[in-house]
Amino acid sequence: MIRFQQLGLTFPGATRPVISGLDLTVAAGEFVALVGASGVGKSTLLRIVARLLAPSAGTADVPALGDGKRLPVAMVFQDARLLPWRTARDNVLFGMERLTIDPAEAARRADALLEVVGLSAHAEKWPRQLSGGQRQRVAIARALAVEPDVLLMDEPFGALDAITRETLQDELAQLHMQSGRTVLFVTHDIDEALYLADRVVLLAGSPASVSLDRSVALPRPRRREDPGLQALAAEIRARLHA
Amino acid sequence: MRLPWRPFLGLAIFLAIWEAVPDSGLLPSSLLPPPSAIPGAFWREVTGGQWLPALGHSLWHYLAGLLIGTVSGIAVGVAAGLSRGLDEGLSWVVRVLRPIPGLAWVPFAILWFGISSGAALFIIAIGVFWINLFATTAAVRAVDPDLIELANAFGRRDQWSKLWPVILPAAAPGILAGVRTGLGQAWMAVVAAELFGVPGIGQRMNQAASLIASEIVVVCMLTIAVLYGVMDMLFLVVQRRIMRWQA
Questions:
Q1: How many CB atoms lie within 10 A of CB A233?
Q2: Is the minimum CB–CB distance between A70 and chain B shorter than 8 Å?
Q3: Ranges in chain B, pLDDT < 50
Q4: Which residue blocks in chain A are alpha helix, DSSP H?
Q5: pLDDT tens string B28-68
Q6: Which of A106, A138, B7, B224 is 20 to 30 A off residue B191, Cα-Cα?
Q7: Domain boundaries, chain A
C-alpha cells in the first residue's frame, strides 16, 4: 500500500534534510500511528503520501492521484480547515466535486456521512456556528466522502478538549473497525496512538528516521485503562526520551 | 426603536446656518442659494424636463464605466495575483501609469472618443480599473496557503480548478473592498467627465453655473450625493448577501 525505502527529504533552499534514510511499509487496512517530538517530520511524511511533497532521495511508493471516480488518499488536518463560506454539508461535498459522481449520489453520500458523524441536524450551518469538535467531524466526513483507500490524519484531535477528544477517538476506532481502511495517524500523544493503532511508529532524530516500530497486538475494542497499553506506553516513552 | 436625534439636530443646525448666511446679506443668494430655495429649484428642473434625462445619462455612464473598470480590474488582478511572472512583468508599467490621475486622461479621451459617452466611460473605467487591480492582486495573494493545500489534497492540483471554489471566495472580502472604493471613485469621474460637455448631471451643473443659477448647481450636487448613497447602500445589501457566512 505504502512503502518508503531510504526516503529522504530536503526542503528547497535548506542545507540539511528533514528526513533521511527512512524505511517504512504500511499494509492495506493497517492503522499506523506516527509519533515523535513536534517538528520531527511526521506531518511532512503524510504530505509525501498525499503527493503534496515529493521526496528528494530514496523511493516512495504511494497511491496514485486517482482516476476521477475516487480519491485514493484523503486528509484530515489539525485545524479542521473547512471552507468558511460553505455550509457543513457543502464542505462534505467539496472533495466529491472533482470526481465523476452523480450529484444525487454525492448528496446522498454527504447526508449519510453527516449522519455517521452525528451532524445531520447541523448540515446547513456555517463552520463558524460549529464547535471545534463538530468542525473536525465535518472534516472527517469530507475525507471519507471520497472513499479513499488511505486516510491521512494530521493530529486531528490535537486542538480539542479532553472529553471531545476521547469521544472522537472512540468514534474513529469504531469507524476503522467497520471500514478496515488504511489509516496513517500523526499524533504527539502516545496514549492516543496506542489506543487507536495497530502499529506505533516513533520518528526521531535530525534528520528523522524510524526509531521504533512496535505492533500493538491488543484486542479491539480497547479500554484506555488496559495494563497492556500502559506497559507499551512506558516502553515508547523510554525510547522517546533516550 | 429609539430615533437617533443628534444627527437630526446636527443637520438642522447646518441648514439653519446655511439659510442664515445669504439671508443676513453676508453673501448674495446668487452665490449661495439658501436651502429653502432648493426644493423649488428641484421641482422646476424635473418639470422642465432637464433633470430626468441628465440623470439617465449620468447613470448610464456610471454603471457602464463602473462595470468595465471593475470587471477588467478584477480579471487582471486575479491573473497578477496568481502569476508571479505576470505581476513582475507588469510592475514597471503599473508604476508609470498608476499615478496618472483619471482626469489627466481627459485630453486623450476627447481625442479618441470625441465629446461622447465613450469618452466618459473611458475616464470612469480607467480610475476604477486601478483600484480593483490593486485590491484584487493583494487579496488573491493573501489567500490562506492552508486552503490552497486543502484544495491540492482534495484533487484540485492546478490553479484553474482552485479559482472558483477556493481562491475567489477566499479573496472576496478584499476584492469587494476594492469594488466599494471604485463605487465612490466612479461618481467623481462621472462629474469630471461630464463637465467637459458629455451630457449628464455634470454638464447640467456646468450650464447652470454659467447662468449663475446656483440653486440648480446645488440640486445637481445633491442628486449625486443621494445617488452615491443609494449605490453604496445597494452594494452593502449585496455584499451582506455574498458574505453571509461571516459573523
A1: 16
A2: no
A3: none
A4: 42-49, 88-93, 103-116, 132-145, 162-179, 190-196, 227-240
A5: 888 899 999 999 999 999 999 999 999 999 999 999 999 99
A6: B7
A7: 1-63+180-242, 66-148
Task: Check CB contact under 8 Å for B154 and A126.
Answer: no
Q: In what order do the strands lie in the sheet with A2-9?
A: A19-26, A2-9, A57-61
Task: Decide if B153 and A86 are in contact by the 8 Å CB cutoff.
Answer: no
Name the phi and psi angles at B212, rounded to 5: 50, 35
Q: Which helix (H) or strand (E) holds A19?
A: strand A19-26
Q: How many residues does chain A have?
A: 242
Residues of chain A with C-beta less than 8 angstroms from the C-beta of B146: 77, 79, 81
Cβ distance of B152 and A86 shorter than 8 Å: no
Predicted ipTM beyond 0.90: yes
Q: Chain B contact for A228, CB < 8 A?
A: no
Are both A1-63+180-242 and A66-148 of the same fold? yes
**Distance from C-alpha of A101 to C-alpha of A238, rounded to nearest angstrom:** 49
- DSSP-derived secondary structure for A151-196: EEEESTTTTS-HHHHHHHHHHHHHHHHHH--EEEEE-S-HHHHHHH
A1-63+180-242: CATH class: alpha beta
Cis (ω within 30 of 0) for the bond into A207?
yes
Q: What is the pTM of this model?
A: 0.90
Q: Does A50 touch chain B (CB under 8 A)?
A: yes
B129-145 residue pLDDT tens: 999 999 999 999 999 99
A98/B161 touch (CB, cutoff 8 Å), yes or no: yes
Taking 50 as the pLDDT cut, the residues of chain A under it are: none
